[in-house]
Write a structure and sequence with these properties.
The chain has eleven helices and 16 strands. The protein folds into two domains: about 150 residues, Medium-chain alcohol dehydrogenases, catalytic domain (Quinone Oxidoreductase, Chain A, domain 1), CATH 3.90.180; about 160 residues, Rossmann fold (3-Layer(aba) Sandwich), CATH 3.40.50.720. Strands 3, 4, 5, 6, 7, 8, 15 and 16 form an eight-stranded mixed sheet that branches. It has a six-stranded parallel sheet with strand order 11-10-9-12-13-14, with helices on both faces. A two-stranded antiparallel sheet has the order 1-2. By secondary structure, the chain is of the alpha/beta class. It is globular.
Length: about 350
């Protein structure tokens, strides 16, 4: 099989394509010949050296794949050879051949390509947890979605529409047209506009009910001020510490110092009737039944035509470094996919 390895911390050029023996599925496992592998910002943070959950380098990262099953282990009953499936992986997803437990594989929705399917596991499960499980979004809520033009951003837009919420999205101006066609009512150009001032203007000074924020640092401090009473700030990343394509300790420290530590405490939150919630799907690996329930609901909505994964671009395994550059240069509108 072919795999993309992070050989050491550094810029995208540290990614290296290597050959390895094909894995063999054991009891209760299936083997997938990947046609598409998802890229997530956690992979980029691991490459830079800022992702504490990443395996020790050199390593193969990646959380999701999609493709046909070509072998099954003893005891497998729900999946058969030839089935096209998508799957969550605990790293190792940057591979053209992956072995997973039978319960981690789900049938690809009718009419979906493998690239569209691979946009579902991490992005939509993360958005589902934020919007329905922890954020408790209800009809009429105003939701501020940061990085609305990315993979999780588009997933959140789809799910907010299902919930009946009004969406405010931050993104560069070039992405606003696409976001508006997908249902974002108000677009804010984070490069030229102060999102805090714009949110308060849009809401006539009331603030929003929910904020989905993967930026961190000053963005969290401003977000807390943008929340109306009973509002919730849901944090699911810290891209603000990854300002370059390799580790910059000074920049990372500045990002950490910008966190509003004095406000993220029970007394302040109680006095202000606000909440801060944290989401990390990678830490729910032992909660398979819970995540499986979310995934089944997402797939049901796919079959009902309520979910429309947005694939920005596909890169070959040999162009993995260029794919990482593409994301870090903020050029993507939607999911970026590796195609073996």
């Amino acid at each position: 099989m072919r795999q993309i390895w992070i050989t050491r911390t550094g810029p995208p050029e540290t990614l290296e394509l290597r050959e390895a023996p094909d894995p063999t599925p054991g009891p209760g496992e299936v083997r997938i010949r990947s046609k598409a592998c998802g890229i997530n910002f956690a992979d980029i943070m691991a490459r830079i050296g800022l992702y504490p959950d990443a395996p020790k380098l050199p390593a193969v990262v990646g959380y999701e794949v999609a493709g046909p099953v070509d072998a099954v282990g003893p005891g497998v009953t729900a999946v058969k050879i030839g089935d096209e499936v998508l799957a969550l992986t605990r790293f190792g997803g940057y591979s053209d051949t992956v072995v997973v437990s039978e319960d981690q594989a789900y049938a690809i929705p009718a009419g979906f390509t493998c690239s569209q399917a691979v946009a579902l596991p991490v992005n939509y499960v993360t958005a589902y947890q934020m919007i329905f499980v922890m954020g408790a979004v209800k009809p009429g809520d105003k939701v501020l979605v940061h990085s609305a033009g990315g993979g999780v951003g588009f997933a959140a837009i789809d799910l907010c529409a299902i919930a009946g919420a009004e969406i405010i999205g931050t993104a560069s101006a070039a992405k606003h047209g696409m976001l508006q066609t997908r249902g974002v009512k108000h677009c804010i150009d984070y490069r030229t506009q102060d999102f805090e001032a714009e949110v308060m203007r849009i809401t006539n000074g009331k603030g929003v009910d929910i904020i989905l924020d993967s930026v961190g640092g000053k963005s969290w401090a401003k977000g807390l001020r943008c929340l109306r009473p009973t509002g919730r700030l849901v944090v699911f990343g810290f891209s603000n510490v990854a300002t370059g394509k390799k580790l910059n300790p000074i920049s990372a420290l500045r990002g950490m110092l910008a966190v509003p530590w004095f406000k993220v405490n029970p007394m302040w939150l109680m006095d202000n009737n606000k909440g801060v919630l944290g989401v990390n799907v990678g830490h729910l690996w032992e909660e398979r039944e819970m995540v499986a329930g979310w995934m089944r609901q997402i797939l049901t909505w796919c079959e009902e035509g309520k979910i429309h994964p947005t694939v920005d671009s596909e890169f070959s395994f040999g162009d993995a470094a260029r794919a990482h550059h593409h994301i870090q240069d903020r050029k993507n509108v939607g999911k970026v996919v590796l195609v073996p």
